[in-house]
Amino acid sequence: MTNTASFISRDQLEAIKELCNIGVGKGASVLNAMLSTHITLNVPHVKIVSSRDFREELKEFARDTISAVELAFEGNISGSAQLLFPTETASSLVSILVEEGDELDMDALRAGTFCEVGNIVLNGVMGSISNILGISFDYSVPAYIETHSDNFMKEGSMKEDSHVLLARTRFSIDALDIEGDIALFMQISAIHKLLETIEEKFGLNEQ
Amino acid sequence: MNNDDKKATGPSDMDYFSGMDKNRGRLLSMNIPVSKELQDKTSPPGDAAVDKCAHTYHALNYVPVGISIFDKNYSVIFWNRCLAHWTHMDSKKMVGTSLKDHFSTISSPGFHERIQDIFSGGPPVIFSSQLHRNVIPCTLSDGTEMIQKTVVSALPSCDSNEFFALMAIENATELSKKVSEYREMRNKAMEEVALRKQIEDELRKSNESLLEHQELKLKQERLKVLLEMAGATAHEINQPLMTLLGTIELIHMTQELPDQTIKHFDNIEKSARRIADIVSKVQKIKQYQTKKYLNDMSIIDFHESALD
Fold first, then answer.
1. ipTM
2. C-alpha distances out from residue B44 to A93, B37, B50, B78, B82, Å
3. Which residue of A133, A184, B140, B283 is surrounded by the most CB atoms within 10 Å?
4. What is the pLDDT of residues B211-242, one digit of tens each?
5. CATH number at residue B45
């Protein structure tokens, strides 16, 4: 497993983890109000890794295809937030939520459902970052992406200094425990801005 | 365009704009800025605001997606042609009124609570066709209910202090139908594959059983022939063998024979007793056992075949 970037302190990581946990908690309450199954979401750990390390880590996380919901944002801090799952896991998640058989393909309808789930979780996280840190963003409409993990965020598709804030998220639905990643793709300058804002709000120091 | 033309071709763009007239008062309170230029062009004051709003979103009348723009009180600011066509509720009827008064789905917590952040510029909200079916219920020409995919996004108002909700509705009925058909075909194909596999398994088992049965039958036939052959051979050999052994015994009783001749008769007796032993084994044959012989041939193993 790759190590987190050296420029971030443990306190800053804890603050980000807390922001993510508040966000996914909000997402879970929306999902629970909407669905008949009970969902618990939590973020056990977060880290910031380079785009190269992220690609390596992703290949271990999903050896075959990956399903992602992307929410791009612009403003003082720009980037994109994504919820990532191995496609097989994403399909199982949808099957449980809509109470369908688990041998179905990830067709357009199921991709739409996964997109809504991702939208709810990502809105919770981005809403938490936006509201607590007082940052406003302009968002694009969330999009569904499905590709082989070797091709996801392929070299050259991201800027050299892009980093990823990676929050491993655990979905507990009834008897099922599955893990997905919430990834915030930002350039290094945007990450520093985010850390500065966290520092201002929480009185922490950047390393 | 004269009035007759208008009737023939349906409502004109300006009909959609003028739909805002009756609710002009409400629209004016929505912070939609009215330029001096536009105010001068229209009379009384306020028409310009309505026209400005209509002009701003006018292009949305030409997209194949149902579009509605509404404020935080759910008061409709814009209702496009597509949505008017789907709901049979034209812009005149909708603009300035509350969406909640027309569609109960809008008041449901699942919709209302999720879009609250939109009015402060929050991220877009998706309502998928599988989880919600539809947000604005519409009946299709065949009497079925339209299945919709809806995205609600934050739209900055013209003075940018406030955000409206832009609701874009895609008709996902055909897609849902095609996916259902595809799933049905897929399930049928899977069932057929499973059935074929089951039949193939059964056929293979039946074939194996048939081969085993044939093998058993063949073995039984061989054993039967072998036993008949062995019985006959033993019977036929035993007769001369008994005579041979008896004669040798008589010769042994004779005292005048030279030692060398007695040795020869001992050898003859040893071989005769060996033949008797083999005949005894042949008589005890119970199964068909073979052993390797010269030139890759197999011959019956009397010893093994006589064992229980």
1. 0.86
2. 58, 14, 11, 21, 30
3. A184
4. 999 999 998 898 888 888 888 988 999 999 99
5. 3.30.450.20
